[in-house]
Write a structure and sequence with these properties.
This protein has 179 residues and is mainly β. It contains no helices and 14 strands. Strands 1-2-5-4-3-12 form a six-stranded antiparallel beta barrel. It has a six-stranded antiparallel beta barrel with strand order 6-7-8-11-10-9. A two-stranded antiparallel ribbon has the order 13-14. It is elongated, with a radius of gyration of 21 Å.
């Protein structure tokens, strides 16, 4: 758990500085959460401090799941500090105002199920074949508050290459199971 030191937002970006850094085991890319849900991701890590880019930042994207309709999409920060946008979702009447939105876990960065926000608007996209969805996501970080940085293991476990192989007789080679 780390304390938020100051806002680094400039009207175009949504960033905050926290009092933890590489000396605390933090690394670029780690997700940051608060009691309200997903706050953002570490984008710069120094020995004793780090920068968090909020999910409301226009340069941030998060893979999500709309919990009632089970539609998957990507939300992007709108830059206004309170809303997220998901554009060009396939036209469907499944997504409804009031539906909760959580992380989908598909990117390997954000674990599945972290609250992101609530759908506030669903409207047809420019082409009419797609819909645009607005998600209300209250700014979840303020100064003199605390955040939790999550360690997510993104390393993929490779199969043991010492396993013996056998010729299956049909032109294919198969691995023998370990006994």
């Amino acid at each position: 758990i780390f304390e938020v030191r100051r806002a680094l937002s400039d009207g175009f970006t949504q960033r905050y500085q926290i009092d933890g850094g590489s000396n605390d085991g933090l690394e670029v890319g780690m997700p940051v959460v608060t009691e309200a849900g997903l706050a953002g991701q570490l984008i710069h890590v120094a020995p004793n401090s780090s920068q968090v880019q909020l999910i409301q930042d226009k340069n941030q994207e998060v893979p999500v799941l709309f919990t009632t309709s089970h539609v998957r999409g990507i939300v992007r920060g709108s830059g206004d500090g309170t809303t997220l946008q998901s554009r060009d979702l396939p036209f469907s009447d499944k997504i409804k105002v009031g539906e909760k939105v959580v992380t989908s876990g598909l990117d390997g960065i954000y674990p599945k199920g972290i609250p992101v926000g609530v759908v506030t608007k669903v409207e047809p996209g420019d082409s009419g074949s797609y819909i645009d969805v607005t998600v209300s996501s209250p700014k979840s970080i303020g100064t003199s508050e605390y955040v939790l940085v999550l360690y997510v293991d993104t390393k993929v476990e490779l199969p043991d290459l010492d396993e013996e192989e056998e010729n299956a007789g049909d032109g294919q080679v198969r691995r023998k199971p370990k006994r």
